[in-house]
Automatic annotation (TrEMBL):
Substrate binds at residues 81, 87, 119, 150. Coiled coil: none annotated. The active site is at residue 174. InterPro entries: L-lactate/malate_DH, Lactate/malate_DH_C, Lactate/malate_DH_N, Lactate_DH/Glyco_Ohase_4_C, NAD(P)-bd_dom_sf. NAD(+) binds at residues 7-12, 32, 94, 117-119. The keyword Protein transport does not apply. This is Malate dehydrogenase, NAD-dependent. It is an enzyme of class 1 (oxidoreductase). Its EC number is 1.1.1.37. Residues 145-296 form the Lactate/malate dehydrogenase C-terminal domain. Belongs to the LDH/MDH superfamily. NCBIfam families: PRK06223.1.
Amino acid sequence: MKIAIIGAGNVGASCASLLTCKSVCEQIALIDINANLAKAKALDLSHMAAILDLDIKINGSDDYELLRDFDIVVITAGFARKDGQSREDLAKANASIVSQSAAQIAKFAPNSIIIVVTNPLDLMVYVALNASKFKPNKVIGMAGELDSGRLKFQISSQLNTNVTNCNAICLGMHNDSMICQKSSMKVGEKALSDVLSDEDIQGIIHRSRTSGAKIVELMGTSAFYGPAAGVLKLCQSIKNESNNTLVCSVCDDSLIPTGRVVKLDKNGLKEIVEPNLTNEEEAKLQNSIDNLILFINTIYK
């Protein structure tokens, strides 16, 4: 398998590092507007692979020709969110970058699967889908795994328990309106509501929703290790056709992307798994989709 990453900044380089260490693919291409940055990080990653006795070919360039016939292309290019800036404030500038990237992917890797990481995530999935003219199953947004992981972390921290003992799912848009599915929140076999008060659970949800903003506040730029781990999980699922469920931003028949429970395979989106939502959660999910439609209309008017 060959995986290309557009954008050699913090997120892109972290993706390449994890994909290398986990031996997910035989080739990695880093493409960036700054050719020297892409080449330098590719060289550094190649040294890392050699130290770890991993036979992986890693190249960097500013030339999209490098991604010719690659299997997966990850779009991380774009402006990072600044302190106090919403994901929505990034929209128009990043839409232009993602649109150009997707058009180049369609030219050089027309059979690839696109994984979008650039924010605002769900809107950028829509932009990539339209610019590439790929089938909807071929364009996938990485965010639900990140949001769900953050929620699991908050649960484990609250209870001081092993994170592998915690389960949680976040659906909808990758922003502060994301839906933390309460029935999915468990510790072992116990529902979280059997262990914690509603006030504690609401605190966990609030901290999860604001985790990204907290990182920006502390560091001055967006997260990169967490998003890279999400990309790794998607790439592994595509390669191995593991039939595991993940949360990704994908399109249903409405062609409006949002975070849904899915299964992936070597063709991209294999199946959307309908979650068991309460009426309130269903309404919130629909509201999330309606808000994205308004957002799309604002960008494309």
